[in-house]
Structure formats: C-alpha cells, structure tokens
Design goal:
Distance between the termini of chain C: 19 Å
Main location (chain C): membrane
GO biological process, one term (chain C): transmembrane transport
CATH class of one domain in chain C: Mainly Alpha
CATH class of the largest domain in chain A: Alpha Beta
Structural class of chain A: alpha/beta
Number of helices of chain A: 18
Largest sheet of chain A: 6 strands, mixed
Protein name (chain C): ABC transporter permease
Chains: A alpha/beta (408), B mainly alpha (317), C mainly alpha (274)
Oligomer: heterotrimer
Keywords (chain C): Cell membrane, Membrane, Transmembrane, Transmembrane helix, Transport
Structural class of chain C: mainly alpha
Number of strands of chain A: 13
Radius of gyration of chain C: 23 Å
CATH topology of the largest domain in chain A: D-Maltodextrin-Binding Protein, domain 2
Pfam family, one (chain C): BPD_transp_1
Chain lengths: 408, 317, 274
C-alpha cells in the first residue's frame, strides 16, 4: 500500500510542479510586454455569454491599437469579487478597471478605491455627450466622473394582465393610492395584491416616489421617507402584500412568475426570466407609481477605474472603447439598454413592452445609499424582516431611525 | 483490539541485549528523533500557512485597518474587542451558536452511532445503505439547503406533517421562530453521515472475541453494547463530540443559502452565528481589524469548550 | 453481532429503510429537478416533460470547459489526498505512540488549529500567496491543505488504541520504531485511513470558498467553482444548478461506494489478528 502511494505521490508532485511552471510562464506572458504593449485587465462577473462578448471585443480592440493589450478577467460571482477585492488590492493583483453596478459603487468611491476619471477624459478628449445625460450624472459624485456608463434602465412596475382584467379593473394605476385600491380587489385566496420584496432595491423606489431617498445617509428618517415606509407597512398590515421569503421563494420575480402576487416592483431582467419561467404569463410594464411625485431609481453598469491601477491612461482608453457602438449593440442583443442615447432609442423600439419606461429614464436617479452601503442594506433587510416576519411592533419612524443609528 | 502478545515475552528479554550505538538505525528507533521527523511535515506547513497568517490576523485585531493598505494599520489597543463585547448582535450570534451546538451535537452523536451499528450488521445491501446515509455529507450544502427550502415552505406536506407536533404551518426559514431550528436540523442531517462513518471505522477495531467472550459470560445485547461497545468507543466519541462542536460553531453554508438576497443570518438575525458575525464585519464590511478581533474571541470560546469536553470525555491520557 | 434474533432483524430493516428514505429524499429531489425545464420548478411533472437539456448545456456549450474543470479537480483532490494520507498519520502516530520533547505542545497546536475556520485567515493567506506568485496555480490550491488538523486528531485517537505490544513485537523482528509504523501499524490501519481518505476526498472535491479565492481564473476553475459560474443571463436557473450538483456529487458517491467495502475486511482479515 505504501509503495503504491509513494509512486502516486511522486507522479502527482510532478504534475504539481508542471502545473506551477505552466501558470508562471502564463503570468509572465500576461503581465510582460506583448509586443511592447502595456497590459490592462478588466474584471467583471457575469455569464459565459458576457465573457464571450468581452473576449471578442477585447480581441478586436487589441488588433486595432498599439498602445495596450486588454485582458478580461471573469469572477465566478459578485460576492466572490467583492470579498476578495481587499486582498487583491493588498496583494497588488487587482484588475485595472472593473464593471460594476451603481447599486453599491458609492461605498468604494467614498473609501477611495475607485478614482475619478476627469483627468483622463480630458487628456484623451473622450466624448461623454454620446451617453444619456442622466446616466452620466448617476456616475458623478461631488461633480467628479467615476464611471463610463455601459448600460442603464429605470426601475419598473409589473402587473399581471390576466388577473387585472379578471378583477374587472380598468386603467392601470398611476399612483400608489390607486395601487392600494387595486390590491384590495386583487388579493384573493393564495394571491396577494402586490409583491414587495424587503430588499433595498424595491424599498428605495417607494421612497423616491414619495420625494424621499437615502441621501447618502443624511436624514434617513425624513418625513417623506416615513410616509413611504408607512405605505409599505400598511400594505403588509392589511395583508395585501407578500415578500418572497414568506412563500419560500428567492426573489420577487419568482413570486410574480408563480402568480402569487398580481403586481410587483421589478426590473428589466424580468423579461428574460419570465420567458423561461412562465412563458404564458401576460404582463404590463409601467413606471414606478407616484406617491407624491414621479420618482424611481436608475440602475446602471459602468466601467470604473481602480485607484491602484498602474496603467490608468490605457485603462480609461480601453474602458471607453468597450462602450463603442458595436459592443453596446451586442449588449442590447442580450437584453440590456445601452447607455448611448441613439442606441437606447433603438432598444425601446425593439422591446415595446418597456416603452412606458423610456420617459422614466429622465427623472430616475441614483440609489444614493449611505457610505457604509453593505452595513446599511443588511440593516435595512434585518429591520424590515423583524417587523414583517418577526412581528415586532416598530413603527416606520422607529425603523428608519434605528437604521440611521446603525450606520453612524 | 490488535493482539500480538505472543511476541511480548521475547520482547522483554531481548530489550536488554540490543542497546544500540549511534547509527542511522538507532536514530530511526529513537522516540525523540522519529517523533520530530514525523511531526515536521505538519509543523512546517502549519507554521507557513496557518500560524503566520493567523498571527497577522492577531496583530490586526489591535488595529484599525484600511484594506487599501494592509501594512498601514493604526494601533488602537483593545478598542475592537471592547466594541464587540458591547455589541448586542454579537451576543445574539453567540447565543444562536450555542443553541445549535447544544441541540445538534448530542443528537448527531447518538443518531450517528445508531446508524453505524445498523449498517455494521450482516444485512443485505449495507453498502447501499451506507452510501445513502453518507449522501447529505457529501452533497453541496448550499444545494441541499436549497432543496430543503423547497420542502419546508408553508402548505407543503413536510410542513403540514410537522403541524402534528405543534408547529405552525409557515415557511420555516422565513419565521424568526423556526429558522434556527431549520438550520440546526440541516446541520444534523449533514453531520450524521460523518459521525456514522467515523463510528463505523471504530467498530471495525473492536475485537470480535470480546463479544464472543461476553456471550459465554451470558451478556445480552444491551449489556454488550453498554459494557463493550460504548467504552471501546470512548476516544472516538471524544473526537466526534469535539469535532461536532467545532463544526457546529462553523456552520455557514446553510445560513448563507437561506440568507441569499438578504442580510446574512436572515430572517432578522434569527440565524446569525459567531461565524456569520465575523464574516459580515471582517469581510463584507471590510473592517478587517474588527473581524480579526471577533476571530480571536471566537477562538477563546471554542478553546474553553474543548478543554471542558476533554476533561469530561477523554480520560485516556 | 449485537442483534441476532429474527424479530430484531425485522426491526433493523424497518429502521434502516425508513432512515434511507429520509436521507435519500433531498438527493432524489435534486435529481428530479435536474431533469425538468425551469418552468416546472417547485411542481411535480410527469416523465413526458423530462429533459436532458440541463446536462447537455454543460457538455455542448463551448462556453463551459467541464473537462478542464474536472481535470483541475482531479489533480487538486489527488494531491491533497496523498498529502493527507502521509502527513496526517505520521504526525498522529508521533502524538499517540512516541515520547518526545514538545509533544504536548504539538498536540495542542493540532487541537487549536482544528478550531479555527480556515476562511478566517484566508485574506492573509491570499496576500502571502500573491507575494510568492502562487495565485491561480495548483501549488496555491494544494500545498497549504496537505494536512488537516482534524484528521491528525482523529488518527491520534485511533492510534492510541493500537496495543504497544504490537509495536514492540515488530521491533523484536528487527524493525525500528519508524519501520514499525510504516510496515505494521500503517497497513493495519486501513479502515481508519480509508475513512480519512473518504472524508478528505469529499471535503476537497466539494470545496468552494478556498479554490474560488485562490484560483479564480477560468483556466484554473475546479468543478464546483466552474459550475457555480454557470448562471443564466439575469437569474439563477435552478434546474441547471441542480444538474451541476448531481454531476459534482456522483464521483464522490462512486468513490465512497467502492471504498466503504474495505470496512468489511478491516483488521479481521489482515492476518495478524489473534
């Protein structure tokens, strides 16, 4: 037995050494000078389709320029990326630039992890006016540009058309009050009027439509926010609303696809999901209803530059090239709304069910989560779960105040 | 038990005559030398890839660390420790961890032993049964939890079945009352396979003659179990219990799975444990100093428990 | 052995079959879900709607290199397995049967190491790996894990039970203390070594956090990490994930099924049994 193991051990140790050797040579060729070019690395997490799209784009970009070599690094998941990023930075192996969503980017901007692009936009004369003006603003903090936007969309409100018609309801709602009245009629048996996922994405849209918001952590318990939160809690108290967790489902899209709620707040990913999960479901898409005013959040992916990047000029150049018309068209083909104004129009023509949303793009704003974003989002979920699932007697004001307290 | 007393007598006589001089052979026969040579591979790897990084964490627990530059930690004394020990969420997490361990460890130890004895019988298809009992241990816990979540929703037959025992018909992992129990059950379900195979291999070491001799002495099945099996398994039981405790404190995947799309320890912190507490603060919130201090506190707690268990269970040494 | 009469035999079978039902249910449900299209998730549907598409996706889509992931996993698991079957028993034996300076300290090192979850020190480990240029190599995936304190502890508990007479007898036959271990005790410990092998195999094969941190380029993905990167465009495709789980679990099941037979042989067949 021992001899067999020893033989195997030697064989495997050799493999190990071979493995190390391989990876070393690979690293060298990666970071070294591929024909005198600097290497810049773009990090992202996403699907295999995204990876293919990026690899093809990078190959083309590398062919067309002599300044840098663009490499693509895929992470298995976003949690994976964020959890190893501190270590990657400490070890000096983080990518030069990454694709991130604006839902969470502020924490890293305020911690100084991402760096402003203004200097490079100026030196390279990059035309930012090709992008939707509002989405360019979403990526500004203190008047400094932090991201080159790739995609954008506004939050949406979904209605199950068949349920709506069956209930004999007329026009689709424009305000939360109308939603409330409709929810009372739509709540029947196992179906609740509305799905409200106790997740910051959804809650934020309620706040914005009441003229409130997180305001980067300032005055969270504002009057507008209390009003919005009161509405959310009222829907739960009167058993008109349901959160996915109660039903044992993962997220709001599943609730809607399983026809357990007649209405829900959601986003553009519903389209692809519903096509697979419930192809027969007919649905209408509206902007987020009004509380006291028009308001919703804008979700956008952009390329941001890491402060530790050694090739900042080249990285910004590469990032800008990745928002070319050609690349963005490919993103459109897999269901994203491109940040380029001209292409965005085309997107809404090709996705007529989202037509109503186009207008919402003009007034949708950034999430404006507090600086300690992850702590904040965790706390928000915890407080709302304790209230809705745990039945503690806190009021909307109590909840918002204890969130304010925790992020000090 | 291994038996070789045929040689024992010869052994005593010869020992006197072969006092070796210094040689390779005598080195290979010396407790000091062999002890160190055998421990060395472990010690090298441990020092390199455990002790050193752990000491880095330990030092960091007295610092406020900006993850942008780990070498530039600011020394702040015991402040991290003070903050943790004043955080009510830490005590909630600690309480949950203790509950998991106190329920899971006795159950999985007894159940694991029973199952090991069952599959050690002369029965048909025992290889198949062993494999089936081992499945939960080797399946990805995230996947297993996902499946269990499909079964423990409101109005499923499983949830309805448990209403017979006074439970409410609600989604277990969405209930602040039942979520911790749900996680504990899943942990037992996973861990019992481990306990079973450890006991199973220990059962192979118990000499058949011991049982045969006891039959001659008129022992019944229960007496054989009580006076042979249980005492012979004592060192292994110490292992199973202390490992169960340690792993019970480290339970993570199940909680991560039910907390997806929300805060770890969902709902509302009902399943937060010392490990999720560390993970949130040290990794998610990137507060490495604070997280490291949580590790150190965590370490002392388990250390205390293990020393107690050793006193109670392991009288061999 | 313990139970002999017919009544208890029936009792045993009833108990074992009931337990088997409970223990196989989640896996069967996983298996079921891996064969259905996503729109039937959470419901029961007849055989006519079953499909192999979820599995096909893994093997036909050129986006996934399942064979490469499998290769990486096999190499990683193989190296760690062998390390653990050599380093752990050696240290355990020293702690159980040899009397040397520092033994108590080393025992406590083992116990303490066991108590600390590895991901608590993963960040410093990562940084040190990066300094050595080891990231995304098999060295990173294996070298720190060639031993496991928990198995040293477990083996020590077993070796304590090995009678000293056996070792003395081996020395009388001309073996040194070192030789007695390799030639007598090690081969005789087959059941417990197989246990360690099975547990190490399962633990390594299934590990996600460590390989996904230390080797996160697609070229070095192991099976679990690779399968985890397989997601649909905007959401998780449960049946696809479940197919991945089945694909990952089957090799461990096979490994276990083959090696658990060794228990039946055990020491009683080793010839040295009195």
């Amino acid at each position: 037995m021992f001899k067999k193991i020893a033989v195997l051990a030697i064989a495997l140790m050799m493999l190990l050494v071979a493995g190390c050797g391989n990876s070393n040579t690979k690293n060298e060729s990666g970071s070294g000078d591929a024909g005198g070019k600097q290497t810049v690395t773009m990090g992202f997490w996403g699907t295999a389709e995204d990876l293919k799209l990026y690899k093809d784009a990078a190959a083309k970009i590398n062919e067309e320029n002599n300044d840098f070599q663009l490499e693509i690094k895929q992470y298995p998941s976003s949690e994976q990326f964020w959890d190893t990023l501190p270590a990657e930075i400490a070890a000096g192996v983080a990518p030069d630039f990454i694709k991130v969503s604006n839902e969470g980017a502020y924490e890293y901007i305020s911690k100084g992890l991402f760096t402003s692009l203004d200097e490079y936009i100026k030196s390279q004369n990059l035309d930012m006016s090709i992008f939707n003006e509002n989405v360019v603003n979403v990526w500004k903090v203190d008047d400094k540009q932090y991201g080159i936007p790739n995609t954008m969309n506004a939050a949406m409100f979904f209605i199950n058309e068949d349920m709506w018609k069956e209930a004999g309801l007329g026009e689709y709602p424009k305000t939360w009050d109308e939603v409330y009245e409709a929810a009372k009629i739509l709540t029947k048996g196992e179906v609740r009027g509305i799905g409200i996922n106790l997740h910051p994405y959804h809650i934020t849209n309620y706040l914005k439509s009441y003229g409130g918001g997180w305001n980067y952590g300032d005055n969270i318990a504002s009057e507008e926010n209390i009003k919005a939160m009161d509405f959310v809690l009222k829907m739960y108290e009167e058993k008109l609303a349901v959160t996915p967790k109660e039903l044992g489902l993962g997220w709001d899209g599943e609730v809607f696809a399983n026809e357990k709620a007649a209405m829900t707040t959601g986003g553009y990913w519903y389209k692809a999901f519903l096509k697979d999960a419930n192809p027969d479901l007919k649905y209408a898409v509206l902007p987020i209803p009004e509380g006291t005013e028009k308001g919703s959040s804008m979700i956008s992916d952009a390329y941001v530059l890491l402060k530790d990047s050694k090739n900042k000029e080249a990285a910004v150049q590469a990032a800008y090239k990745l928002t070319s018309e050609e690349v963005q068209k490919q993103f459109m083909a897999i269901g994203h709304n491109p940040s380029r104004t001209a292409l965005s129009e085309q997107y809404f023509n090709e996705n007529p069910e989202f037509k109503e949303i186009e207008k919402a793009l003009d007034y949708s704003t950034d999430w404006e989560y507090p600086e300690k974003t992850k702590m904040f989002t965790d706390k928000l979920s915890e407080e709302l779960e304790a209230k809705v699932l745990g039945g503690n007697g806190k009021s909307a004001k109590d909840i918002l105040e204890s969130i304010q307290q925790s992020i000090k | 038990m291994l038996k070789a007393d045929t040689y024992a007598g010869r052994n005593k006589i010869k020992k006197q005559t072969t006092r070796p001089r210094f040689s390779l052979r005598s080195l290979a026969d010396s407790d000091q030398f062999v002890g160190w040579v055998f421990s060395l591979p472990f010690l090298i790897l441990w020092g390199w890839w455990f002790f050193y990084p752990f000491m880095e964490s330990f030092v960091r627990s007295f610092q406020e660390v900006n993850f942008m530059d780990l070498s530039q930690g600011k020394f702040i004394g015991l402040q991290n420790y003070v903050l943790i020990l004043h955080d009510p969420q830490f005590y909630q997490a600690l309480g949950n961890s203790l509950k998991i361990v106190l329920i899971a460890v006795p159950v999985q130890t007894v159940l694991g032993l029973v199952m090991a004895i069952l599959v050690n019988q002369k029965i048909k298809g025992k290889g198949l049964f062993r494999t089936i009992f081992f499945i939960p241990y080797i399946t990805s816990q995230i996947a297993l939890t996902t499946v269990a979540m499909m079964l423990f929703k409101e109005n499923t037959f499983v949830t309805k079945f448990f209403t017979a025992f006074g439970m409410e018909n609600v989604t277990w992992f969405a209930s602040t009352k039942y979520a911790l129990l749900f996680v504990t059950l899943l942990f037992i379900f996973q861990q019992v396979g481990f306990t079973m195979i450890v006991y199973l291999s220990a059962l192979q070491e118990i000499s058949k003659e011991l049982y045969e001799a006891s039959v001659i002495d008129g022992a019944n099945a229960w007496q054989k179990f009580r006076f042979i099996t249980v005492p012979m398994l004592k060192p292994v039981t110490f292992f199973v219990v202390s490992v169960g405790t340690i792993l019970g404190f480290q339970i993570f995947d199940q909680i991560a799975a039910i907390s997806r799309y929300g805060a770890l320890g969902s709902p509302a912190g009902a399943t937060s444990t010392v490990i999720t507490y560390f993970y949130q603060h040290g990794i998610r919130y990137m507060n490495l100093g604070y997280g490291s201090a949580a590790v150190v506190i965590f370490f002392f707690i388990i250390m205390l428990i293990t020393v107690l268990q050793k006193k109670l269970l392991d009288d061999k040494e | 052995m313990i139970f002999t009469n017919k009544v208890s035999k029936i009792g045993i079978y009833t108990a074992i079959v009931l337990l088997a039902l409970v223990f196989s249910a989640p896996f069967l449900y996983t298996l079921y879900t891996s064969f259905i299209p996503i729109k039937y998730v959470n419901t029961f549907t007849g055989l006519e709607n079953w499909t192999f598409d979820n599995y096909k996706t893994f093997f036909t889509s050129d986006a996934y290199s399942v064979s490469k992931w499998l290769f990486n996993t096999v190499v990683m698991t193989g190296i760690i397995l062998i390390g653990n079957l050599i380093i752990n028993p050696m240290a355990a034996y020293a702690l159980a049967k040899l009397d040397f300076f520092g033994k108590k300290l080393i025992f406590w090192i083992v116990v303490i190491t066991m108590m600390i979850p590895y991901h608590m020190i993963l960040i410093p480990v990562y940084v040190n790996m990066a300094k050595l240029g080891w990231l995304n190599s098999f060295a990173a995936l294996t070298i720190p894990f060639l031993y496991q304190a928990i198995y040293i502890f477990m083996l020590r508990q077993f070796f304590i039970g090995v009678p000293n007479e056996l070792i003395e007898a081996a020395r009388m036959d001309g073996l040194t203390k070192m030789g007695a271990f390799w030639r007598i005790v090690y081969p005789l410990s087959k059941p417990v070594l197989i246990t360690v092998a099975i547990l190490t195999f399962a633990g390594t094969w299934n590990s996600y956090l460590i390989p996904s941190t230390l080797a996160n380029t697609p070229e070095k993905y192991v099976l679990v990490v690779g399968l985890n990167s397989v997601k649909d465009m905007f959401f998780e495709n449960t049946p696809l994930v479940m197919a991945g789980v089945v694909l990952t679990t089957l090799p461990i099941l096979a490994f276990f099924f083959v090696f658990q037979k060794q228990y039946m042989e055990g020491i009683s067949n080793s010839g040295l049994k009195g």
